[in-house]
Amino acid sequence: MAKRSTTIPYSFVSLNGANGAPLYRQLYDELRTAILSGQLRAGTRLPSTRELAADLRVSRNTVLNAFEQLLAEGYVEGQVGSGTYVSRSLPDELLHARTLDARTTRTPRAGRTLARRATSYTHARVNVSRDPQGTRPFRPGTPALDAFPCTLWARLLARRWRRPSADLLGYTEPAGYLPLREAVAGYLGAARAVRCEAAQVIVVAGSQQALDLVARLLIDEGDAVWLEEPGYLGARAAFKSAGARVVPVPVTAEGLNVQAGAESTPEARLVYITPSHQYPMGVTMTLGRRLALLEWANRAGAWVLEDDYDSEYRYVGRPLAALQGLDAEGRVIYLGTFSKVLFPALRLGYMVVPPDMVEVFTNARGLASRFSPTIEQAVLADFINEGHFARHIRRMRALYAERQAILLDAAARELRGLLELQPDAAGIHLVGRLPAGVDDVAASRAAAAHGLDVQPLSSFHLKRGGHGGLLLGYAGFNERQIRAGVRQLAVALRSVMRDKS
Ligand SMILES: Cc1ncc(COP(=O)(O)O)c(C=O)c1O
């Protein structure tokens, strides 16, 4: 029986018997080009001569000769026969072309034109952590990953894998796995007073996908969209990339200032809001403002997009009911995510759309990536239906309340005069105020130099000036990390204050 290949076929190699050059020379040229262009990276193991010969349907001698030549010239190292690797010590001038390529990839070179709409994606990067050390304090939006019940999840996953039915492995409904949609509808009705049937729930790859679908389906180029000021960057990026005119509408202690929006931009097509716990300021929109917004939206014929991203975490009193439950006209689209309650890499969230919008949103969701992984959806449905979800939320609520208290205690000891923090009845981050005149971008940079990930409040504003603050996520960090992080933050802020004076 032929030995099975363990390597990936080298599809970029194409040898041509009629070309005139010997086959070993053609193979040498193709491998050398792949090494120089970076397609084969330093340290990559090449396939064995036997495997490559079989893949390319040439004699083993052809491959041996090509490898010998590459070895002799220093492109590869090791011993033919016992593992050949792309050399880790290629001279710089050889790699020059590759370095240039890497440097210029941000601006597409002439001759290959993108669609006009691609320009709106140039600055539409959604926040990602590229931190090689993992997530550093106090990156906002990170739940306690170390407290996730991995063993339980693995058990539920294994149970599903033991006897997977055809509907779990094949192509399926773009709107999502029905038992999960039913579980979500049940949870939203009971916990958030959202009024919906399972048929209105569309499972998406996190709320970011929902924002993208909403922007595509409800916004035409040039349409005005109200965005809370300060507001969520993921929403701003989605609407801007759809060509929207994003209009900042101020947030006060009562939530979005509906009157200010109605006066400045009455023609808006859509309003994006986080009424339960405004992102990032943390205020809860009052009932009066909610009713005023719905009334305005009905008059103006505008959509309201309610992002209920972390309402599970309320430490004082009961969570406020969702705005969606007040909507009698089918104007509100409701978004939720499992990124904060479970973990972000699950990439599962949901949207609740009015009944007459189900078909168009389902079609668009299907076009985007067909559907979300079904086994994970089934496991999540089990997790909810068997009571683990409610238990996890209760445990995390207690843990996050404790972590917020630790952060406040550490700040009271270390950050007096440097950063003013107030308790928040909800959420998983706090916004600290810097003393007047201290630049929050400079403060964030200084914090980064001390190993911290602290985002400046001004980056969440569309308008410039007058709002120095820092966002401190606390849910994902233990007591030791929080206390050590606060001490480092104090050192960083003192250095910024010194430079200023
Ligand atoms: C306001 C807001 N909405 C939604 C999300 C979650 O996005 P996703 O569901 O795409 O992970 C976040 C995460 O930081 C957020 O801050």
TL;DR?
The chain has 16 helices and 13 strands. It has 501 residues and is α/β, with parallel strands linked by helices.
What does this entry look like structurally?
The structure is a single chain. The protein has 501 residues and is α/β, with parallel strands linked by helices. It has 16 helices and 13 strands. The strands form three sheets. An eight-stranded mixed beta sheet has the order 3-10-9-8-7-4-5-6, with helices on both faces. Pyridoxal-5'-phosphate binds next to α8.
Quickly list its features.
501 residues, Aspartate Aminotransferase, domain 2, Aspartate Aminotransferase, domain 1, 3 domains, 16 helices, binds pyridoxal-5'-phosphate
Radius of gyration from the alpha-carbon trace, in angstroms: 27 Å
Spans where pLDDT lies below 50 across 5 or more residues: none
CATH class label of the largest domain: Alpha Beta
What oligomeric state do the depicted chains represent?
Answer: single chain
**Order of helical and strand elements:** HHHEEHHHHEHEHEEHEHEEEHHHEHEEH
Instruction: Determine the strand fraction and express it as a percent band.
Output: 5-15%
The secondary structure category is: alpha/beta
Q: Please report the distance between the alpha carbons of the first and last residues.
A: 78 Å
Name of the CATH architecture of the largest domain:
3-Layer(aba) Sandwich
Present as ligands are: pyridoxal-5'-phosphate
Number of domains: 3
What would CATH call the homologous superfamily of the largest domain?
Type I PLP-dependent aspartate aminotransferase-like (Major domain)
CATH T-level fold name of the largest domain? Aspartate Aminotransferase, domain 2
Strand order of the largest sheet: 3-10-9-8-7-4-5-6
Largest sheet: 8 strands, mixed
Number of beta-strand segments: 13
Helical element count? 16
Overall residue-averaged pLDDT value: 91
Percentage of residues in helical conformation:
40-55%
